[in-house]
Design a protein that fits this description.
- β4 and β5 form a beta hairpin.
- The relative contact order is 0.18.
- Strands 2, 3, 4, 5, 6 and 7 form a six-stranded antiparallel beta sheet that branches. This protein has a two-stranded antiparallel sheet with strand order 1-8.
- The two termini are about 25 Å apart.
- Helices cover about 20% and strands about 30% of the residues.
- The chain is globular.
- The chain has three helices and eight strands.
- The chain is of the alpha+beta class.
- Belongs to the peptidase S1C family.
């Protein structure tokens, strides 16, 4: 797709994403997105090094997703997520790609916490509010 007002600027959407959107429209007439109620920051080596320098108790991880905020009353809150958690696995797979369209289906999440604590949580995504 090209942006008319910007010469030479364009973007693309992966065909897998388009196929899922089409399936959602066929089934329910709208796109359904999962929501667990976390604010997330994908960590890289530079961010991890800075966090370890600032917070000596930061988990010893090489990659993951930092959870700075858990929405009160959300599926993540009910599952036991805490601000500062570092998600290292969703259902045994790397990072968040697993959520896909799994509304209502239990997902096991491995979280690293300070003090070298590893916790496995189970969260059930809800349908995202389209007005949010």
């Amino acid at each position: 797709m090209k942006v008319l007002a910007a010469d030479g600027l364009g973007f693309s959407v992966p065909i897998d994403s388009v196929s899922k959107i089409i399936e959602h429209f066929k089934k329910s007439g709208r796109v359904i997105r999962p929501w667990i109620g976390l604010k997330m920051i994908e960590l890289n080596k530079m961010i991890i090094a800075q966090l370890k320098e600032r917070y000596p108790m930061f988990p010893d991880v090489e990659k993951g997703i930092l959870v700075p905020t858990v929405i009160p009353g959300s599926p993540a809150d009910r599952a036991g997520f805490k601000p500062g958690d570092v998600v290292v696995r969703f259902d045994g797979k790397p990072l968040i790609e697993i959520m896909d369209d799994r509304v209502g289906q239990r997902i096991r999440v491995v979280v690293e916490r300070s003090s070298k604590e590893t916790v496995t949580l189970e969260v059930i995504p809800e349908e995202a509010n389209p007005d949010m």
